[in-house]
Structure formats: structure tokens, C-alpha cells
């Protein structure tokens, strides 16, 4: 009989404890289990910036998952497209016309204020890895990987802001400005101070917003 009372008492305690946990043990999450709208988009972007004080054109692509018409989580990649000529004094292979290549890739996030308004702001951050290298600038069909010199890797963080315009339900134009910060670059003539700069960019976005 005593054992029966103990079992009943124990079960009652367990029931009361579980009820208390159900009432007070609510788990708070970032999205509060309420993803009301889920979409996604891709973007083509072009930046006008400087590297070592010289003009540099950087073209890129990014895109990802767009949550509740506020937050985009995705990936990005970009690289220089113009000739960043390496001075003979810094060229690893001075017998050829060397150019620098700059590139970066990593996590891309955007936070959109008033996505449904015709004109609104977007705050963004690209964080990941960057690289520079030297190679002879001649026809792509002649280029060999063995011609790549001084490959240099480092960390990149690029925060920015855009003024976004809804052209159509599926297309947006987003001019903006960002700042490229690098950490740990140690290439020949390509230190952090040579790579850090303001970027002015124009972006076209396509998708389900």
C-alpha cells in the first residue's frame, strides 16, 4: 500500500512538472516559428572601386532564400574584370605583361526595410574569403594554371547599403555603396591597405520577393 501511494505521488509530481514546463518552457526563436512568406532571388552586380589607388571593375553574382520579405540568406562571388597591371618592380614574372586578379566569395545577407514599397532601403553584408594573384594578361585560350603566381588568400567583410526600386514584381534595381575590408592579405604589393576601399555598385535582382 505504501508503495502504491509513493507511485501515485510520483506520477502526480511528474504531471505537475510537465504541465509547468509546457506553460513556462516556451522556446524563443529568431523567426518565432512564423515564416509567413518564403521566396528567393538572384542578383547580378557590378562595382566601381579602386585597388592600389587604381580603378577596378568588379562583377559578381549572389542570391539566396528571402524570408518574410525582410531577410535574405545566401551566397556571393565576384572578381575583377579589367587589367590591373603589375609594375615590373612587383611582377613575379617580369618577362610577361602581368596583371593582378582579385576575387571574393562567401556568405551574403541582406535586410530589407519595406520590401513592398516602390523605393526602400536594403542593408547588406558579404563575409568570406578573398584572393589575389598575378598572371600574364593574354588570350584566355593560351592561359595555363602554371602561369599563376603569388596566390594570396585572406578574410573579407563588405558591409553596404542600397536604395532599392521595385521595377516589376519579379525585378528590382538596387544602386548602392559598400566598403571592402580585408584582413591578412600578404601578396606582393597587395597588402590590406592596398585592397580596402569604397565600392559604388549597381545591382539587378530577379526572383520571388
Our count of domains comes out at 1
Query: Would you tell me which CATH topology applies?
Result: Porin
Through-space gap between termini: 67 Å
Q: Which structural class do the helices and strands define?
A: mainly beta
What does this structure look like?
The protein has helices at residues 2-24, 192-195; strands at 38-51, 54-67, 71-80, 84-85, 98-113, 119-136, 149-168, 171-183, 186-187, 190-191, 197-208. It is mainly beta and 209 residues long. It has one domain: Porin (Beta Barrel). The strands form 2 sheets. It has an 8-stranded antiparallel beta barrel. 26% of the residues are buried.
Task: Write a concise keyword list for the protein shown above.
209 residues, mainly beta, Porin, 2 helices, 13% helix, disordered N terminus
Topology diagram in text:
Blueprint: H1 2-24, E1 38-51, E2 54-67, E3 71-80, E4 84-85, E5 98-113, E6 119-136, E7 149-168, E8 171-183, E9 186-187, E10 190-191, H2 192-195, E11 197-208
Antiparallel strand pairs: 1-2, 1-11, 2-3, 3-5, 4-5, 5-6, 6-7, 7-8, 8-11, 9-10
Amino acid at each position: 500500500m505504501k508503495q502504491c501511494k509513493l507511485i501515485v505521488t510520483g506520477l502526480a509530481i511528474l504531471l505537475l512538472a510537465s504541465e509547468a514546463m509546457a506553460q513556462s518552457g516556451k522556446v524563443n526563436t529568431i523567426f518565432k516559428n512564423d515564416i509567413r512568406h518564403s521566396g528567393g532571388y538572384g542578383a547580378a552586380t557590378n562595382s566601381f572601386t579602386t585597388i592600389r589607388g587604381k580603378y577596378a571593375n568588379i562583377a559578381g553574382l549572389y542570391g539566396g532564400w528571402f524570408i518574410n520579405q525582410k531577410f535574405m540568406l545566401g551566397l556571393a562571388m565576384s572578381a575583377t574584370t579589367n587589367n590591373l597591371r603589375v609594375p615590373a618592380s612587383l611582377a613575379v614574372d617580369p618577362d610577361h605583361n602581368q596583371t593582378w586578379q582579385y576575387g571574393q566569395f562567401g556568405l551574403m545577407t541582406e535586410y530589407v526595410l519595406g520590401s513592398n514599397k516602390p523605393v526602400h532601403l536594403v542593408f547588406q553584408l558579404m563575409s568570406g574569403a578573398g584572393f589575389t594573384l598575378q598572371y600574364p594578361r593574354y588570350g584566355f585560350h593560351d592561359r595555363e594554371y602554371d602561369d599563376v603566381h603569388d596566390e594570396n588568400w585572406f578574410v573579407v567583410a563588405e558591409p553596404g547599403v542600397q536604395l532599392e526600386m521595385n521595377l516589376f514584381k519579379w525585378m528590382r534595381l538596387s544602386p548602392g555603396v559598400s566598403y571592402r575590408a580585408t584582413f591578412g592579405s600578404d601578396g606582393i604589393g597587395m597588402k590590406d591597405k592596398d585592397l580596402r576601399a569604397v565600392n559604388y555598385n549597381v545591382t539587378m535582382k530577379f526572383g520571388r520577393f
